[in-house]
Design goal:
Low-confidence stretches: 148-156, 218-229
Pfam families: Response_reg
Helix content: 55-70%
Strand order of the largest sheet: 2-1-3-4-5
Mean pLDDT: 77
Number of strands: 5
Strand content: 5-15%
Order of helices and strands: EHEHEHEHEHHHH
Largest sheet: 5 strands, parallel
Keywords: Phosphoprotein
Number of helices: 8
InterPro entries: Bact_response_regulator (IPR050595), CheY-like_superfamily (IPR011006), Sig_transdc_resp-reg_receiver (IPR001789)
Protein name: Two-component system response regulator
Length: 229
């Protein structure tokens, strides 16, 4: 079963949270409420989120301050933040939102379809990143536990060849999905989403290079993993 992504909704008004849940329920992901900046930061201590929808105007810690705290934490600094605001003070106010680390800035009332589409993009990117991490973890596990020492040093090790082939096929599936998503985002013209997709593609390229280096006859990358300690 594919694990659902978590989306953090931050707003001090219950009716706004209810409206967001109604709009995003069609995505069939896990929606987590936070009624203040402090409550949002507490939720971020224990859970991983695909995207954060953050209200700007909140009593106490407002959206800008909350975003600053999120971006200072290593664990949460890369989570996309979409600012939601009922006011518009012009370009300076919007610039402040982007300077605080937001990937998008949407004024209320907003088009429900547009908001749902934007959130969906970041959920898709999050899922691809999760797949990438799983493949990398599997690669490390197979190298540590599944391969005999010295496999690949003289072209031997059928087991190692089979494992590498399986990992390569799995990675290829993720690469194909990421490429299709990248084309879709390029056509949409959403600069923030395109940049995030490019970051994902760079990670995939790095993992592909590491996997290719383990192929028999490429210089003994497997020996380095097992015999270099």
């Amino acid at each position: 079963m594919v694990q659902k992504a978590k989306i953090l909704l931050v707003d001090d008004r219950p009716e706004n949270l209810l409206a967001l849940e109604a709009i995003l329920s069609a995505l069939d992901q896990t929606l987590v409420r936070a009624s203040s900046g402090e409550e949002a930061l507490k939720a971020l201590l224990t859970d991983d989120f695909a995207v954060i929808l953050l209200d700007v105007q909140m009593p106490g810690m407002d959206g800008f301050e909350t975003a600053a705290h999120i971006k200072r934490r290593e664990r949460t600094r890369d989570i996309p933040i979409i600012f939601l605001t009922a006011i518009n003070h012009g370009p300076h106010h919007t610039f402040r939102g982007y300077a605080a680390g937001a990937v998008d800035y949407i004024s209320k009332p907003f088009d429900p379809w547009v908001l749902r589409a934007k959130v969906s993009v970041f959920v898709d990117l999050y899922m691809k990143n999760c797949q990438l991490r799983e493949q990398a973890a599997l690669l490390r596990l197979q190298l540590e536990q599944g391969l005999p020492d010295g496999a690949g040093s003289n072209g031997g090790g059928k087991e190692s060849v089979g494992i590498i082939a399986e990992l390569s096929a799995r990675l290829a599936a993720v690469e194909e999905q990421a490429e299709a998503l990248g084309k879709q985002l390029n056509e949409s013209g959403d600069g923030a989403a395109v940049a995030t997709a490019a970051h994902l593609e760079r990670k995939l390229t790095g993992l592909r290079r590491a996997l290719d280096a383990l192929e028999p006859g490429t210089g003994g990358g497997i020996i380095k993993q097992h015999g270099g300690d």
